[in-house]
Design brief:
- With 262 residues, the protein is an alpha+beta fold.
- The chain folds into 2 domains: 2-79 and 248-259, no CATH class; 86-220, no CATH class.
- Helix content is 23%, strand content 31%.
- The protein is built from 2 helices and 20 strands.
- The strands form 8 sheets. Strands 7, 8, 11, 15 and 18 form a 5-stranded antiparallel sheet that branches. It has a 3-stranded antiparallel sheet with strand order 12-13-14, with no helix packed on it.
- The model has no long low-confidence stretch (mean pLDDT 92).
Amino acid sequence: MIRALYTAASGMNAQQANMDNVAHNLANVNTTGFKKSRVEFEDLMYQETRAAGSSASSSTEAPVGLEVGLGTRAVATSRNFSSGNLRQTSGPLDMAIEGEGFFQIALPNGTTAYSRAGTFHRDAQGLLVTNEGYALEPNITVPPNATSISISKDGIVSAQIPGQTASQNLGTIELASFANAAGLRPMGGNLFTATSASGDPETGAPGSDARGTLAQGFVEDSNVSVVEEMVNMIIGQRAYEANSRVIKAADEMLQQVNNLVR
């Protein structure tokens, strides 16, 4: 009975992690480029009383074993990188990736982060930057007198300059792809960093080597489904409740044992 208390407690802790994850997904339902995640669990070790295949008699062996599991634990947070819906903003510097790939963002410490959020702005020098002021890589500088900006599906950025008949080419946006995008480490601010699990980034123009293309004037919404998360919340709540009832039942059984000596 004491074992049941700890086993049920491990289930409550696991479901608490599950509810925390559901809350995080729902909190970011309107976050541009956000990717939902789910908690993965595994069972804990087993206390084995009899092993399968052990001798049951001089001429027979046990077809099944006898063991009692000791609970569960959360072991991973798996992120779903499926595309979210595209929402039109008509912003000339807003971009959405139709397909796989990440924007490359230069961080102040000299490293590169990766993002699906394509909301960009011009800073005082004309560089395309994120909401936090981090520059897009490769750097794209927009002339201050540019009257319009055009971004093609394959990432070519051009601007219309007064007095020039032809558009001025400002550079090409490159996207990064990973062998295992689920291995990227989230760092907040719609940014991810590469890890040994994700593999090294492979960069190239949009539309090349299975990378997605760009859609100017659009942003990618979160891929969180409110209905799905509400269902997950109900399941997690009921699982938490069931484990709490196991603790209550084990407590009542211990109380009965204590009453035997009265």
